[in-house]
Amino acid sequence: MNRIILIGNGFDKAHNLQTGYEDFINWYWDEWEKRLFNCNGIIAEDEFISYRLTIRDCMYGWSNVIFHNIKNYDGTKRMLLNWANTNEYKCRKEYKSKLFKEICETWKCKNKNWFDIEEIYYQLLNKETQEIEKLNDDLNLIKIKLSEYLSIIEKEISTDIIKDGIFHKLYEPIKKRDIAISSEDLWKNEIRCRMNYSSERWGKLISSYVNDPTQMASIHADIMSFIKHCRSIDKEFFDYQKAPESFFLPNYTLLLDFNYTSTINLYLLKSDNVLLNQIHGELSNQDAMIFGYGDELDEKYKVLQNKKDNEYLKYIKSIKYLETSNYRRLLGFIESDAYQVYIMGHSCGNSDRTLLNKLFEHNNCVSIKPFYYIKADGSNNYLDLVQNISRNFTDMSLMRDRVVNKTFCETLS
């Protein structure tokens, strides 16, 4: 039995890395403050927006705006930017991108996730009056800007941020209580198979997750002793609760990374039994970064297909997956054996629905365990996660069986 761990943006945030959409947009506007301060002309602009001074006492540039209009300017709190946004009669603000305007004004960035931004793109994609090529160009510009921001955050990633609690959860043994009722036969079959593992095979499996030779030897001895005992009592089955914990280590662990950052690499074991799949690409190859929308189950998607214009499908994730072997390798993994799914920091929004539906409803999936986080007010996001997970199912009865209840779930920390 294997394990697939979905690594999302929340995984980075659990390491105090500011990789959320709100962090990105705050950085963007902070950069705008610097741009206005350093602008010598009356027009300041970038790919998404422009500010033009229109009043005589401002015509000598933005430094003159500070002198005449902003007292005690210290370069903080976006004082110059706030002035530009609130003085329409002195400064004309113009969005160059409908997508970016929608993101900034219609959907306020606070408490939004990346899948919300991809949802905005998808909504605009379905509007008849939308200029599709311009929309796609704007989405690509946002991806480029995001890459620029994450490259700054990437410099903060070091072994200093590793958390022992997260390391343990990534590679812990599978628990019987997490297995779906409908998958109990798969669980029993797994136990029967493990009873027949050779001593050498157990040694290899244990060494895949444990580095300490003394600890490895102790675990190996406990497992072999347990198997010998079970065989001696001549029973077809045995009380799994008496088995050593390590008896249920995953055969293989697949780290399915949806992030562009390299945080998960800090936890990557040097083992043939631990695999990494960066399904959405990485910062080092900007062109291969997948950013868009992926919900083929949505009725509107069929409408886009029927338009027979490839621009409508340019940033559909399920099509972008074909540019690399990552998705095919994932399919090979889920077909190879039964597996449990851990969700660490992935919001499970509709923008990844095609892929998640494949994972969650596959016959080999025996369990889906979300790791939640505690909010500032003391509440948690377990229910939010489960609600999002449910949207990736077409069979609600199956969803209720496979998703691990909150009693047995833990925080991502």
Can you give a write-up of this model?
The protein is α/β, with parallel strands linked by helices and 413 residues long. The chain folds into three domains: 2-19 and 157-165 and 250-408, no CATH class; 21-154, no CATH class; 172-248, no CATH class. It is 44% helix and 10% strand. It contains 17 helices and eight strands. The protein has helices at 9-13, 21-37, 62-69, 79-86, 98-106, 114-125, 132-154, 164-170, 184-195, 199-209, 213-232, 299-306, 317-320, 326-336, 353-361, 382-390, 396-402, and strands spanning 2-7, 43-45, 49-53, 91-95, 253-257, 274-278, 339-344, 365-371. The strands form two sheets. The chain has a five-stranded parallel β-sheet, sandwiched between helices. The protein has a three-stranded antiparallel β-sheet with strand order 2-3-4. α10 packs across α11. The two termini are 25 Å apart.
Distance between termini? 25 Å
Largest sheet: 5 strands, parallel
Question: Would you report the number of β strands?
Answer: 8
Report helical residue fraction. 40-55%
**Major beta sheet, strand line-up:** 6-5-1-7-8
Structural Rg: 26 Å
- The outline comes out as elongated
Order of helices and strands: EHHEEHHEHHHHHHHEEHHHEHEHH
The overall pLDDT average reads: 92
- The parts where pLDDT drops under 50 for at least 5 residues are none
What is the count of distinct domains? Answer: 3
- By secondary-structure content and strand pairing, the structural class works out as alpha/beta
The fraction of residues in strands falls at 5-15%
